[in-house]
Amino acid sequence: MPPPAAGMDSKSRARGSASGVASSKNRSSATGIRSTGGAARHSSGAARLSGGASGTRTRGTRHSRSKNGATHASGYRGDGRKPPVYLQVDGERRNVTPKSLLRGSTAAPAPGDGNSAAKSALQQTEENANPNPTASSSSAAAAGAAAGAAAPPTADANSGNMRMAKSHAEVIGRRASISAAAGPPTTSQSHKNMGGMHRGMSRLHTQRELLKETGPKLAPLEVTLSETATATLLHIPSMWEASDSPNVGVLREDNARYEELLQRRATSDNFGERHTQTLTLARKEKAVSCEPVPKREVATMATTWDIHDAQMAAMPGINRDDDPSRRMSIFGRKGSSNVTQGSIQVEDRASEVDIEVGRTVATTLATGCLLDVSEATTQTSTKDAGVGPGVGAPAAPQGGASAPLPATTEMETQTDGVALDADALMFQRMSEDVLHSEGLSSRLLLMERSLQQGRYHGRHLEYRNHPSANPKSALERLAESMSLDDELGSAGEAELARSVSSSNVMDDFDSMGSPKPAGDDASNMEGSAAATEKTDGDGAGTSSGAKMLDMLWKHECVLTSNRSVSCMAYSKGNPDVLAVGYGEFYFDDQNGGAVLFWSLRNPEFPERIIEVDVGVTAIDFSSRNPSYVAIGLYNGAIQVYDTRSKAEVPMTMSGMGCGLSLGAPVLESQAVEGQQHMEPVWQLKWTDRGERGEVLVSISTDGRVLEWSLKKGLSVSPLMELKRYGDTEGVISRTASGLCLDFPRDDASIYFAGTEDGHIHKCSCSYNEAYLESYTGHEGPVYRIATSPFDANTFLSCSADWTVKIWHDRRSTHVINFHTVNLSEVVNDVAWSPFLPCLFASVTGDGRVEVWDFEASPHDPISTLYVDSVPDPAWLKKQEEEKLKASHIGANGDRSLPGTRQTNRTATTYDSAGGRRPRTEEGKKEEAPLIKPALTCLAFSDNAPILAVGDAHGGVSIFRLGGDVGASHAKSKHASVLGESELEQVQKRVQRAMFQQEDDGEA
Amino acid sequence: MSAAVEETLKRIQSHRGVKGVLIVNSDGVPIRSTLNQESTDSYAALLSQLAFKASSVVRTLDETDGLTFLRIRSNKEEIMVAPDRDYLLIVIQRHEMN
């Protein structure tokens, strides 16, 4: 064994390291590695390299005795005054192996000293291996600094293993211990090693990116959190080690060796007793083992709209109804904004259900029978079951839970039933909420429109005069043959479609749209195209087979059965909406009235309904407030409705119809004596009085023309009392019954009024004593006056004397008389086309629509179309009554319930509608006599080449102007958008045409 | 269920080719159906997922927007879905063939 190195004296190494590595054996240094993981390891490295420049005598003797007699810890003398060295050491704190210990020491800033220190350390190691206590003490004195650091031999910061540490470190040498104790507080930047407390060298890796460059703008702060090395602030090693620890074997071995050592010591001289003061390591007397900390990963995705919703929810005072998040929250996730509301709702609902269930249970327990529960539930569920006779059983969860319990059910299942019922009741309540929600009816309407859209798409295109509709493109034909309804397409057309599509890629669609038998058209429920058309042979109207008047569809439904169309008006705000007034013209037939608002979107059911208990006789839309519609009634009353208001009022009409009904009228004329009309209001016109606002002018058979102002309710002021004109001898009344009126296009102060005695009077709104002008010529009541939308001086009139006449306001006799030779029926209505200045149409009592163009043909209409014959409603009514009687007498017979099968359902519908009946029924019954329905009124659409014709059976047929007229229609502008010069030209043209024809007529 | 809704439902059902009308709540549970159990379940389950996806697409493109209608046209039928806050209204219409 080598002698103790004299150089170990600190004086001899004035600048040398005062530290050393004390390692009794090679093996023990390996142990040291094993036992000191992580942070502890680097502390040994630090100790090794610390250049103690204190110059003080740090002499200490260390005798470290582990149970195996080896000091396997490294320490350092803690009064380092060279912080850079420490820092450098910090960097390589890992992988401190015996080799790196050496390497590290050689890399120390004082290499020479370091080498010697390392050498000495090795020597010490040798020495410590010597069991001789004196030698060891002297060598330990040289390695004094190590003593201070000897404390944490077993410190293991990272490993969870608690090292069994029976090893005792005794520091021999007071001075060393003092300096060791005093050292750490003086080192400001060194890693402190106080009484076994380690300050880990772990660094916190928190990456922050603060975008300071962006200045005042709030840049997003990105924080990335990642796992760092563990920093141990306090570690108290345990005296105990878990028996299943992997180190147990080693420790047992160590313990055994230590025991052996102790035994050997008793008899050996190699051991001596000295006193020393050292910091004792606090040790835990108990070991605690715990379960690994459970970890769970949670992920969530926030879409942009989730964030938007949350923001909207956080912002107060936002109208939630407009918020799409509210509308669409069925798709919102749980936890998004609206769910808070939803969950509250659910809670409410739940408590409600609880109460309900509690009550039910209480009552049933009281009676001792739970049958009530099932009955009650069944009742509520059957109340809602099925949307109608044709609808199947309700959905399973409902049905399953609320199935009636048999009377013999055991008590057990009954209690189960209660539990089930709670869920079912909950579900049922939620379902009811849905079924009663406001949105549902609008969704249903939307759905209905979509269904109709699929069906009417082709005809909608035609309605709009879309290029693809005129002439019908092959593609469209193809689409039509594919689509649900090819009722417009005859077999030939379908054939065409087939020939087109067979060369097409979409061959397989062709087989789907196989042509119908031609006969189907006859049995077609819509039967729209069956109208016969007779065009005048001059070719003015026809061009290459295109129909002049093409019926697109017919507005009718259960609500219109047994009613007569009395008046019509296209909405000025939305020209796709046609308001149709229904009411009988004759006193005996009065059975209530209605106004239905038919939209293009759903030709089969009105969008809005106004139901009144007397017949509607006049209707007009306001142009200033396009949502206002005024109606005149058979009893002389006038009502103004706002079409925007919605009130779901169950309709009593025919006991069948239900729809969106307009609520009460906004304004209503008061039945004050002498104020409102005493007789039916036959025509209503809104007219703009400029600053005075828009007023309503009405005319009635009581002979008065009244002006209604909307300023204070409906206040009335008489405009004119129509007096009899001409020979008044022998007449009972001195007043003439007014039937119609119209204002010229640009003058709201003048109007023309038509009377029952066949005269037309020009009146001024400001002068009510006499007529400005009177026009005679008609021999029957004048049913309609229509001023030209192009020329203020020209107007048309139609009359019961089978004629239509055109007038110029400065001539008291008519300019042209229009009368078809074979017409011997009343002309009920006449209307100008708003696009073509010389075109007008009239409808007659024998079911024909005549289109006239007096520029082209003054003597004959350019097109005449007879609408379909319909079964005589009177006959049908009689038949129905008989059937009713029969069903009263006998069993229900073969009368199938409505809605059981589709064919039957539609059959019934059409039956009650008084319309055509499908062929399936025709076989059984005798044919109803067909009659031509009288046509009562007509209207031109303002935005399409469309003519709406109302008949006396409640149907409103929509005709499209085709052929040349349709083509020129598409090229023309609406009268209201023509410029001054254009208008002047048009007016000249009208006048020229008029008087030219007149001259011709006279010649 | 109000009479008007009832009426409209009836009308929709009486349209030509309409195979079924379903009302499905937000959880995909059918509330009202005119189809048999099996097809009700499959339509309800599949369409509520699809409608959710469609709505998500619409709202991701523009979060202030919202899905109002979804139409699926196939060789045999057309499925129309009108979603609302708490439910989906589904109508299945067959293409009519002779």
TrEMBL record, chain A:
Residues 15-25, 34-58, 128-159, 392-407 have a biased composition (Low complexity). Residues 117-127, 899-911 have a biased composition (Polar residues). It is found in: Cytoplasm, Cytoskeleton, Flagellum axoneme; Dynein axonemal particle. Residues 918-928 have a biased composition (Basic and acidic residues). WD repeats lie at residues 775-807. Residues 1-170, 379-407, 485-542, 885-928 are annotated as: Disordered. SMART domains: WD40 (SM00320). It comes from the Eukaryota. One of its GO terms (molecular function) is dynein heavy chain binding. InterPro entries: Dynein_IC (IPR050687), WD40/YVTN_repeat-like_dom_sf (IPR015943), WD40_repeat_dom_sf (IPR036322), WD40_rpt (IPR001680). Keywords: Cell projection, Cilium, Cytoplasm, Cytoskeleton, Flagellum, Repeat, WD repeat. One of its GO terms (cellular component) is dynein axonemal particle. PANTHER family: DYNEIN AXONEMAL INTERMEDIATE CHAIN 4, DYNEIN INTERMEDIATE CHAIN. This is Dynein axonemal intermediate chain 4.
Automatic annotation (TrEMBL), chain B:
Residues 5-93 form the Roadblock/LAMTOR2 domain. GO terms for cellular component: cytoplasm; cytoplasmic dynein complex; microtubule. Keywords: Cytoplasm, Cytoskeleton, Dynein, Microtubule, Motor protein, Transport. It is found in: Cytoplasm, Cytoskeleton. It comes from the Eukaryota. Belongs to the GAMAD family. Acts as one of several non-catalytic accessory components of the cytoplasmic dynein 1 complex that are thought to be involved in linking dynein to cargos and to adapter proteins that regulate dynein function. Cytoplasmic dynein 1 acts as a motor for the intracellular retrograde motility of vesicles and organelles along microtubules. This is Dynein light chain roadblock. The lineage of its organism: Eukaryota, Sar, Stramenopiles, Ochrophyta, Pinguiophyceae.
